Amino acid sequence: MKLQVLQEELSKALSLANRFASAKAQLPVLGNILFSAKKGKLLISSTNLEISINIAIGAKVETEGDITIPAKVITDIITNLNPEQINLVSKEENLNITNSEFESTVSGMNALDFPAIPKRMERVDLSIPKDELAKALSLVLFAVSSDETRPILTGVLFICKKGELTLVATDGYRLSHVVLKNSSITKTFKFILPKAVLGELTRLPSDGDVEFFFDETNNQAVFKSENIILSSRVLEGEFPEYQKIIPKEFILKIAADKEDLIQAVKLASVFARDSANIVKMNIKSGKLEFNTESQLSGKQKTRIEAKIDGEDLEIAFNYRFLEEILQVIEGEDVSMEFSGSSSPAVFTYPKDTNFLHIIMPVKLQD
């Protein structure tokens, strides 16, 4: 392998690829980055076997070839060089790095030891603007479970059908559901992606559209955004039949200012932290009140103005769940619908009628 590449381009690519290398893995090669020199470009790849990345940058390639180099070593070298042309030459399992004032030889490994990862899209099953995807993911990722004993809940369910994409996440206590219109989808399929890869997808330093390819044969999802290809394993198993828990009838509907709700929840949290995070909502005689009480630190009541339509109700929630949904909702107003003190509450906002969030209440002691 022999090529010339710009330091700025290589440094950016390595900083990104380095995130997916695993220095502590049992397989030493997983701590390496793979360089593949092809006609007119350098492909930079890394993987932790859960998530893989492949980045293509422009290069003047004199001789094609492949080599893997320790991720931290090559990244630390390249990021500290001056912004100018860099020469890369591999010989057997060593990589020689030079520029106008620097020379180094780095010991690598045979490229054949590196795991095979996707380097191209077989087809495009879904295409979506990155900013639209990032916004939708922000509405569901916080509801993903961190409980590894229920691995199927540690990801987001993607339901694709003609003209429509639905994202669903739940941890068993709350559920987020968002529907996006999408003309690129022409067939019906679904898969569950780990939270980690979706977080990485939103962080990619690229704009424009993100293209998806669902590889059922290898149980992988592959994404392409400009010069970057990201791939991930798909979680295996059946996602819960979430539709059954979405209430259809309500005894009470409330509309309130989001900032008023945020302030009320924050004030309630002062004492809720000492009482299992529980905050009570009392709706009586057309008034909305938040109550918390702690045997250790005290108690409080916060009343806010709201449009209330329906029966009186006392219901309790984990304040953290209220806090998190209010942080992601856009716009000034929040709608809340209730079926009873022991039934899930539905949170929506007028700005996006395709989104809903459900929170299970905490059972109150008699």
How would you describe this protein?
Helix content is 17%, strand content 45%. The protein has 366 residues and is an alpha+beta fold. It has three domains: 2-113, Roll (DNA Polymerase III, Chain A, domain 2); 126-243, DNA Polymerase III, Chain A, domain 2 (Roll), CATH 3.10.150; 246-359, DNA Polymerase III, Chain A, domain 2. The strands form four sheets. A nine-stranded antiparallel β-sheet has the order 14-11-12-13-26-25-24-18-22. Helix 1 (7-17) packs antiparallel against helix 2 (71-79), helix 3 packs across helix 4 and helix 5 (258-272) runs antiparallel to helix 6. The longest helix is centred in the last third of the chain and has 15 residues, at 258-272. The radius of gyration is 26 Å and the shape is elongated. The chain starts with a strand and ends in a 7-residue tail after the last strand.
- Radius of gyration in whole Å, from Cα? 26 Å
Approximate shape = elongated
CATH class of the largest domain: Alpha Beta
What is the CATH homology-level superfamily of the largest domain? Answer: DNA Polymerase III, subunit A, domain 2
Please tell me the overall pLDDT: 94
What is the count of distinct domains? 3
Structural category is alpha+beta
Say what the CATH topology of the largest domain is.
DNA Polymerase III, Chain A, domain 2
Report strand order across the widest sheet.
Answer: 14-11-12-13-26-25-24-18-22
Question: In CATH terms, what is the architecture of the largest domain?
Answer: Roll
The helix tally amounts to: 6
- Fraction of residues in helix: 10-25%
Family: Belongs to the beta sliding clamp family.
Organism: Candidatus Woesebacteria bacterium RBG_13_36_22
Protein name: Beta sliding clamp
Main location: cytoplasm
